[in-house]
Amino acid sequence: MAPFIYILGMASTFGKLFSVSTWGESHGPAVGAVLDGCPAGIPLCEKDVQEFLDRRRPGQGKMTTARNEKDQVKILSGVFEGKTTGTPISFVVFNEDQHSNDYANIEKWYRPGHADLCYDLKYGFRDYRGGGRSSARETIGRVCAGAVAQKFLKQVAGTEFIAWVDSIGKVDCPAVDAETISREQVEASPVRCPVAAASAQMEAEVLAAKTAGDSVGGTVRLVVRNVPAALGEPVFDRLDALLAQAMLSIPACKGFEVGSGFAGSRMHGSEHNDEIFFDGKAYHTRTNNAGGIVGGISNGESILCRMAFKPTATISQPQKTAGRGGENGELAAKGRHDPCVAVRAPVIVESMAALVLADLYLQQLRQK
Predict the structure, then answer these.
(1) How far, in Å, CA of 115 to CA of 230, rounded?
(2) Is 240 left (phi over 0), alpha (psi -120 to 50) or beta?
(3) Which of 213, 282, 291, 296 is CA-nearest to residue 259?
């Protein structure tokens, strides 16, 4: 009888009422998702989803991987006459530019920084072609579902999600006004940094790493505006805890903070507490060190988050490693990769945040 650890399955579903299950591998025939729990009557077509996938897709120039995928989405179910029906919505995107032979040399070797070894330890088996499910290509399904979540929340509450690259390597973006920044400003930059001078420096940082056969990390900021108040639970299903789970589930994301984050640990309570006032219609705070979340529950202010993304694990430089048979050696990875994963991360960050808020919004409606 095989050890129990080798007969485990892999969970791929996120959310309770508004839930998404992603499927597919980097070098399989296709990837996609099934979104369950979306209310009926939401206007939706493939174009609505495609505009988000176009922001995520590879082959966008020197800043991203050269893998040439069109990432054209097909909606197979859950939409009739341009509106959601309330039944599961199924998305599929076919893989068209796999170079599986690039990975033949790693069948017996574990790549440093990748999930190869951990997958073998957990399942006793792995898809070594591009990392299989550990590949960031899995996030296509998240973006499909996240596009619907954003459209739903925009319709019911006017909620907006905007993420941008805040740093790459040692280059930081100057502070921007989170209440006025636009997606157009972000998308005008090849590295999705809305400040032109910083964007140019970040481009140079990415290209230098690429030329050296290396990679570089970065951070992404997110603002969610027009957030419904009272979303989230006060104990385990805190809104900030669920956002942390969502963000840290994104491949290469290694850090999360909300509001003042770690900087708040250097402040006094008299400085950090956000003063509350009533404007005649609603309660507000004069500052937003809490990042729109207090006690695990949204207070109606904008949600502010920051995520850290490690350098891309795949690099062209030779690295010391070990093989499946216990041998030690050296490996120079082949294949195409992003020199900085943070550049394509903003739309994925927005998508995961939207999935969290859409799920909590429906949970809140159930309580009323």
Answers:
(1) 38
(2) alpha
(3) 291
C-alpha 144/C-alpha 351 separation (Å) is 8
Q: What are the tens digits of pLDDT across the range 127-159?
A: 777 677 788 899 999 999 999 999 999 999 999
Of 49-53, 301-305, 331-335, which gets the smallest average pLDDT?
331-335
Distance from the Cα of residue 71 to its chain's centroid:
17
Residue 234, C-beta contacts closer than 8 angstroms, at least 6 positions apart: 295, 296, 297
Single out the residue of 259, 228, 243, 258 nearest to residue 364, CA to CA.
Answer: 228
Which phi-psi region, left, alpha or beta, contains residue 280 (left: φ > 0; alpha: ψ -120 to 50)? left
Residue holding tokens 């485990």? 8
Report domain extents, the chain.
4-367
Residue range 57-115, pLDDT digits in tens: 876 666 766 555 688 999 999 999 999 999 999 999 999 865 555 566 778 889 899 88
Q: Which CATH class is domain 4-367?
A: alpha beta
